[in-house]
Amino acid sequence: MRARGDVTADIGIDVSAVARAFGDVHAVRSASLEVRHGSVTGLIGPNGSGKTTLMLMLATLLRPDSGSIRINGADPTSDPAAVRSRIGWMPDVLGSWPSLSVRDTLVATGRMYRMTRSESSRRAAELIDEVGLDELADRPTRVLSRGQKQRLSLARSLVHSPDVLLLDEPASGLDPAARVDLRDQIRRLAAGGAAVLVSSHVLAELDEFADEAVYLDRGETASREAIAGARTSARDWRIRSLDPALLERALAEIGDGAVTDALGTTVSVSGDTAAAALLTRLVTAGVPVTHFAPVVGDLEHTFLDLSGRNTPGGIRG
Ligand SMILES: Nc1ncnc2c1ncn2[C@@H]1O[C@H](COP(=O)(O)OP(=O)(O)OP(=O)(O)O)[C@@H](O)[C@H]1O
């Protein structure tokens, strides 16, 4: 049990200045992050930035060259058994036993965690229901689609009721409805006290359910200062109006840089205060505004800004 009020005990994942190289490829140069129980942290980074390498180190499957990792206070290198008993690991690709059924896969996994046969069967049934694989429960895993395999992979990571979850691209291959289910499931797990680290390329979705974000770029986590700066930098807002010509005239009077395409008119705005002021001016000018929102969500904007791919210009706050 975690003691109430004990701050360090609330931290499920604690990573400090971790590095790992493969020969002369420095996959992770310096990663630091913290994930508290009861919260979801998104791990964000471009292809090859070191996300999987970092996850593998947290999951006891790869040794760091330097730095420190603690999972519920235990060191994955010196005490892998303690760490494995507490983590749920969902790899980006499920290596499944093709001829075993979904149910038998989960029962076998439970047995590996030393659960009794009846305990593992009960848990397998519970998880099959939770991830919506009821109709496929007794089919061999080789018939599963990619999305269905992802669900099985999530179920498998939860067999022993872990309280630290490492989910590597869990949404890949899922259709929109299944993504919503996954998001709800992850939120439920966090509400139940799990510390969840989830990597994803689908930033718009992470935006909706992650409490925190960690940005990894070329093996280094971005500092709090860099993130704070990127969050408030100028970003594009899309505006639509019942009277597009009037909108364009009003924007031309306020400032330059508006671009109109089939989706509406886009302007660059620095921060929420400037956005609110712009909306007020448009409405005061009689523009019938029907849509006024940032083009991309917070995470995506911050990610693009940190990686130097935002090219703001136009209206400033
Ligand atoms: N076993 C290995 N041997 C050599 N190089 C490796 C190995 N594993 C990873 N790398 C290299 O380390 C870097 C980071 O890879 P990693 O898979 O951790 O990135 P990632 O952020 O998970 O990428 P993606 O988003 O594409 O899955 C890459 O340059 C990769 O080629």
UniProtKB/TrEMBL annotation:
InterPro entries named in the record: AAA+_ATPase (IPR003593), ABC_transporter-like_ATP-bd (IPR003439), P-loop_NTPase (IPR027417)
Q: Which PROSITE patterns match?
A: ABC_TRANSPORTER_2
Every copy of the ABC transporter domain together lies at 13-243
Entries under CDD domains matching the protein: ABC_DR_subfamily_A
Q: Which UniProt keywords apply?
A: ATP-binding, Nucleotide-binding, Transport
Q: Which Pfam families match?
A: ABC_tran (PF00005)
Any idea which GO molecular function terms this record carries?
ATP binding; ATP hydrolysis activity
Q: Which ranges of the sequence are coiled-coil?
A: none
The reply on keyword ATP-binding is yes
The family line of this record is: Belongs to the ABC transporter superfamily.
Tell me what this protein is called: ABC transporter ATP-binding protein
